[in-house]
Fold this sequence. Notes:
A: 154 residues; alpha+beta; globular; B: 707 residues; 5-stranded mixed beta sheet; 21 helices
Amino acid sequence: MPEYSLTVNGSLHTVNVPDDTPLLWVLRDELELTGTKYGCGAGQCRSCTVLLDGTATFACVIQIKSVGDRAVQTIEGLSDDLSHPVQKAWLEVDVPQCGWCQSGQIMTAAALLAEHPDPTDEQIDEWMSPVLCRCGTYNRIRKAIHIAAKEGGR
Amino acid sequence: MSGREVSRRTFVQVSGGAGAGLILGFNLACSGKQAAATGSLDPGVLNAWIRIGNDESVTFLISESEMGQGTHTALSMLLAEELEVDWSHISSKHAPTDRSLYGRQSTGGSTSIRTNHERMRVAGASAREMLIAAGGARWGVPASECRAEAGQVVHTSSGRSLSYGSLADEAALLSAPDEPSLKDPADYHLVGRRMPRLDSPEKVDGSAVFGLDVSVPGMLTALVARPPAFGGSVGSFDAAAALAVPGVRHVVEIPAGVVVAADGFWAAKRGRDALTVEWNPGKFGGESDDSIRELCRKLADHGAVVTDEGDVAKAAAGAKKRIDAEYDAPFLAHATMEPVNCVADVRDDGCDIWTGTQAPTSAQDIGADITGLPIEQIRVHTQMLGGGFGRRSRNDFVGEAVHASKALGAPVKIVYTREDDMRAGSYRPVAYNRFTGAVDGNGNPVAWEHRIVSPSILLNIGARLQEGIDPTSTENAGDLGYAIPNIHVTYADPELPVSVHFWRSVSNSQNIFVTECFLDELAAAGGRDPLELRLALLGEHPRRARALRLAAEKANWSTREADGRALGCAVAECFGSVVAQVAEVQLVDGEVRVLRVVCAIDCGTVVNPDTIEAQMESGIAYGLTAALYGQISIERGGAVEGNFDRYPILRMRDMPEVETHIIAEGDPVGGIGEVGLPCIAPAVCNALLTITGEPIRRLPIGDRFKT
């Protein structure tokens, strides 16, 4: 079984897994970082979104062999204390319902705000529409992103 | 009483449980006093729902399942209101599964608040009085001289105070009061206000533990190969290739199919991909959507009579205009964002089950049935649910995990891939509807015949039908609510092997669509405004009329067709609440755009208005997904759609603006979780009828307007 080293939320980890193992299952089953969620296994719902060197990426499809030396950031690494502006805005608006998709929503929103500190509704649509929510929290997500932008985004 | 309530009661009977509510006296008495005698409960336990720590922490144990509907927060508000405790000290978690404390634990039918509103108030008030009594005893003054205030017991005349945390252990040793006095709702400071959800922080930092996040020592992760056709079975299988995959530990057959158990998900997935199974297709293996519809059409003339008033045939014959129509609604998957899953650990001395379930006591029953262990040795640990919508009351996934753990002698986590989840059945039933309607010269409907053919949920969960009628299939159709003098409604079950189950709002999701759309067809045939016609026919239902008027007024109904946009409306009464919606719809290059939905919800009494708004948005998004895209198709006896590419979910860019208006005029508290859904499909389709002149008689709307 090949050995891979990867940096997740600032810590270096070594895992022995088949080279086609999706990053999602390395995070969940090997590193016990279960905040990143499985929803479809095919890049269609984006519940598994993590940041690779700051870029929003769906972890259910990207294989461990393709991660390379890019730094992985998951929901657990966004802040230690709910202090990231996106998390604060999410709490202010009370976005979550069932919550399963919210890690993916939050990580995508964080990447959006890093790229566009004051996004338009069209930019929010473009970035957030691939991230599915079965509970229909979209209008609150939009509101929270605008609030986070006012608070300085990143 | 609505058909819905009848159905839930039947469901409870089917599941063989004791009714909740009867046990209140016992579980209130189940305080530390009893704990001290039995050693069974921790100190600081005021009753089955309330624990207070010496550090002033207040933990509410909620017997209802939290699947996003916000019930843990709302029930905690009711407890905290009566307990008089500071909101910042409160946390909530799922209660253990214990029918001796909570009765039958089952969350569904939008019943959590309706069932528990008074129960939570009494539990909170009882604990408050015990704490006051403990404070009085500490000071040697009568309890009547003391009061409770923000987590303190205060001796009014001296101004002395003691914190709940310092009194909890003493209070827990007291007997629960027989009849605790409840607060005057006029004095509420929590209930009725917008309160933040207790579960938001853990859902925003990724620490919330859902069923799929559970891991226990020695656990194997397993996928199950299930028959591709409903009613099929395993013929034979060859495990060699699967067992050759690194990390795969076992391949074993259980009633549901063939289990591939491995060290983790990826190995289990690769192992199952490598597995070879010969399937027996079963009797249904050649069936398809077309053959199912043909069967339903044949049965439409042979249904059991649900409602028969006046003489429909005669009235239709003498009417000014007559419409005959066939309406269809497809099978739908719940598609919870977290696919269903379960961890079970079967041992000689007991069985532990960790899962996100809407029905923990039913999971316990399943565990006992399969293992032969007594109920008390089946411990069901309810985890956070990544969506429920009815799917997680089925517990088929629990049975699979228990079977697998029993067979393998190790803890097993059964994981469903998205495809497994979407093709596993438990669908919203397909429904075929044949209508005949007629209007007189004034445009008044005079005849309404509605023949429903739709698989029975009750038969699927092992219940019997009375006189051939499944009330979970005829909600709001058998009892139409509109003053039409001649009504005939029938129901038939097509006896399909496709498993069907409760799906958010149950048959209201089909019946409100077909009845509210067909009413608009009659309005158009008679030259009547759909809103005006409804109000004219709702004389016996003033709450429905009031909600409809409010939604229409806020949506500016008087301009219902302008600039290529149109409004459509619908109204429904279900789950103890009344809801009306007006949708503003535009058709652009064949694409249906729902711009705005105005929703009036009359739920009688409000606990958390923010949750009510969230649930209206949620029901609308869920219902709009079904209206625009939702369909599980059957080919060769099995489900075609497996993932979100072919079973799309509404996206951010397509979510309409939602404006919710709450009516709460003191009527009994109504349900919220399902009520937002039924009206959206007919409201949208009725707007499209105005735009195009053509009724939409088959869901989903799909690409029909695209060229």
